[in-house]
Amino acid sequence: MIDEILLEIADEPSHRSPAAFNLLLARQSRVKEVMKQQSIPVICITHPINVLYATGARNMTVFSLMNTSRYLLMFAEGPTILFDFWGCSHLAEGLPTLDEIKVATGVSYVAAGTGLKDQASKWADELASYILEYVGEGALIGVDRFHFAALDALRERGFTITDSDQVMAKARSIKMPIEMPFINEAMRRTEQATVELADSLEAGALEIEIWAEFYRGLIAREGEYISTRLLQSGPRTFPYFQEAGPRPIQSGELLCFDTDTIGYHGYAVDYSRTFLCGTDRATDQQKHLYRLAYDQLNHNVDLFQPGTEFEEIADKAWPIPEEHKPYSYYCLAHGLGMSGEYPNIPHKQPGEPYPLKGRLKPGMIVCAESYVGSELSHEGVKLEDQLLITESGPQRMSHFPFDDRLLVKED
Fold this sequence. Notes:
The chain is α+β, with helices and mostly antiparallel strands. The protein contains twelve helices and 17 strands.
């Protein structure tokens, strides 16, 4: 079956192919299954990635991240109704996951101004008509990012509000076999765009020009967007988390790059590489930093075994040298799916209780993080790999090569 899906998505890029529709139905079933497990009979969600996961309905994703402009009402036992932005209902027509499409009521100051309370009342009345029919009075409703006026209006009608993330985060954290061909295809296309980025690493090119080449390659391959612009060169590789800017790169400098893409079919791809720019040879310090980051990454990858407690991973993680600890990456690893997801696995802090309970499960995708920076040389190396947790251990999903000119054995 998976081979058939691979052939289909290679030949048919449409989000409305039979394989894509089967994917959407499987994800919707997964959400409803978790709703029943959590005893949450209805959810009303507006986060566009949650809506996309649950239904496949995509519309102005970045705009929707900034505005409560569309939302989804889904019953564990009952219909799924999309309230879409005005004039956009045709975008979701024909999706097998939707029973009805209606025009959304904007519940925000931008949409309603001083009439926000009245708008929220209208919004809540419309939802209540469905909830009373399919669940009844006093229903428990899972919600995500609505304006407090909207939530107050639901409470005034006798409903109880809870966080929908306990449904959506749990549903999205385990990847089903039907998802894997699409995720692997997202990875393949992102790696192709990374090749084009690497080919543009010429002395004098601006960081933003290099980053734009990657963005072009992603969008040309049906990607969605890039959630960060983490690309930095030379002295800007330390400390980390510096965005691509108008700095020209020089031969012999390091360049750190993190994909952070929302790619094909909305699936995220997240790996990091550090390149040596131009034709100059790497310095001993550059090779040393690269070796440390590479060792950290590979040591930690081996710890991501199914069933392993998060705290055990933190206990056995690669010991960061003292001189590099203040500048290390903020977490050991984080989940991934259609964005950064559960779990976010922190480092262990001496004398403090470990904050994250739980264990790795087969079907999770996690990204192992490594950053080693030096205050003395003002350089840093960022590496990261995306892993699928399987019954037999971690499987690397990212295959973009490391830089051989930096990856040499130290004397």
